[in-house]
Amino acid sequence: MNAAETLAAFSEGTLQPAPPAGSWRLCVTGAPVPKARPRAVAFNGRARVYTPGTTARYEDRVRKTALRDWSFAPLRGVELALTVVFYLPVPVSWPRWKRQAALAGGLRPTSKPDIDNLTKSCLDGLCGVLFSDDSLIVEERTAKRYGAEPRVELVLTWRATPTTRAQWETTRS
Asked: Could you read off the pLDDT of 63-93 as tens digits, one per residue?
């Protein structure tokens, strides 16, 4: 199924359900963008709250990348484990030795953007495409690193949640 067919099936709600357990990888190229705080403006005497443009565009890029590669309906009723690594660009102003150390893994990003805001923007882009709600995530591992090519690498692992005692007992043995 190509990206256009997946998008059409997603819009129509005719995608097949995902297997009961599995793992899936996604790579979003380009510099990760943190989730910015919502903005509010007065419009006709009422407050209107909106997501800033840079955040909305990044979430849309994450969503489109996921739609291109994911060919199932959003996951529901499963436990999700998420591993995300954010590869940030090395500051151009750094001397060569420091840039090399950063790319070799000797230095990690300890400044902004915050890792939780980076994760939020990714999850908001994936919600409704990979999973029905991010409350399904029961385990999360995140890291920030420097990379020659800025990107986000994400691994999503899921397993069905037991809904009956018999199912629960079979998972224990």
From this structure: 999 999 888 888 888 899 999 999 999 999 9
For residue 142, the tally of other CB atoms under 10 A from its CB is 15
Task: Find the farthest-apart pair of alpha carbons in the chain and give their distance in angstroms, rounded.
Answer: 62
Our measurement of the distance from residue 32's CA atom to the centroid of its chain's CA atoms, rounded to an integer in Å, reads: 10
Q: Is the pLDDT of residue 123 over 80?
A: yes
For residue 38 the two structure tokens come to: 């919502």
Q: Which residue has the tokens 């790319």?
A: 103
Identify the DSSP state of 71: -
Q: Which residues contact 69 (CB under 8 A, 6 or more apart)?
A: 26
| C-beta separation of 52 from 124 below 8 A | no
**121 with 59: CB under 8 angstroms?**
yes
Count of other CB atoms within 10 angstroms of residue 168? 11
Q: Distance (Å, rounded) from C-alpha 82 to C-alpha 7?
A: 24
User: Are 26 and 156 spatial neighbours (Cβ–Cβ below 8 Å)?
Assistant: yes
The one-letter code for the residue type at 67 is L
* Residue range 19-172, CATH number: 3.30.1330.70
